[in-house]
Amino acid sequence: MFLSQQEKSVLDVLKNNKYYVAQSIVLFEELGFLGSVNNVGTYSFMIATHFGANNIYTIGTDAAFDQETGSRYTKDSSFMKIEDIDIQKESNDIISSFDIIEVDGNLRDKVKTNRSLLTFKESFESTYHSLKERYEFEVFNLSDGVKMDGFNPMKFDEINKLVNDFETKTYNIQELVDNISRVMDMPDFDKDIKILNRILAKIKKHKSKKIKNRDEFLESKLDIMLWILEQSKTMSSSLFGNIFLIYTELSDIYINFILNLTQKDIDKPENLKKINNIWSDGVISVIKDIKKAIH
Predict the structure, then answer these.
(1) Which residues lie across from 153 on neighbouring strands?
(2) What is the pTM of this model?
(3) Strand order in the sheet with 138-141
(4) Which of 63, 150, 211, 247 has the CB geometry, 3.0–4.6 Å to 120, for a possible disulfide?
(5) How many other β-carbons are positioned within 10 Å of the β-carbon of residue 28?
(6) What are phi and psi for residue 30, nearest 5 degrees?
(7) Would you give the distance in Å from CA 196 to the centre of its chain?
(8) How does pLDDT run across 136-150, given as a tens digit for each residue?
(9) What is the pLDDT of residues 64-88, one digit of tens each?
């Protein structure tokens, strides 16, 4: 994530005031499952909320390039990747996750980014809505990037005025973390292993099924997906079903792309059989990995 010099100066002001963003920290006897996210920015946002922050100010949550230089990273980062944000995409080009696109901005009307960077926006927004079901908080975004649902835009002059009124607080972070830490008993996954074995057997049977046409392939795949999700509801954690959904969401992008190609004979039974084998083998691999993890 890109941090401008102005954003860094705001961080310095916050540090000098010894204000750790959270106005109050509430320690819970048991936090339970904190959740899983795919980048450190979303993780920090999630942890601040779990610790009881009621006003959160994010810097560097841009999900976009530097709008002047096209850089994806700050100048002092060990990473360096510069995009030519002035390139205009040809209308007949194949769609890619790295195409330059324009979206609504946080501090300006429009910003340039790409679909790869927009995954950060999706991560922040989904985490925000999940946390909102449990906590009361407000989050303010000072980043010159994309507009994010639930993140209130805030300019630098606004935060500079607020900093002067922030209450100075100091915390022993290690002590706080130690107070909410505990040794957990290993869950009993015996029932889950049986369910996973049942799913594996069903998928292997599905893989050997003869496929006559495209509609039959899609209907059959949908039926077994729904069956797997029903089975996952009886498992000890919703995480298992979520992992399966994430895999199928990814694999379906590939499958739908192949099925919608105007390629001769793509709907022939032998080609559909190959696609079904690829999908089935992928699900089998995912389920086996889950079994290894919980053994």
Answers:
(1) 141
(2) 0.48
(3) 55-58, 138-141, 151-153
(4) 63
(5) 10
(6) -150, 115
(7) 25
(8) 999 999 998 999 999
(9) 877 676 666 554 443 444 454 455 5
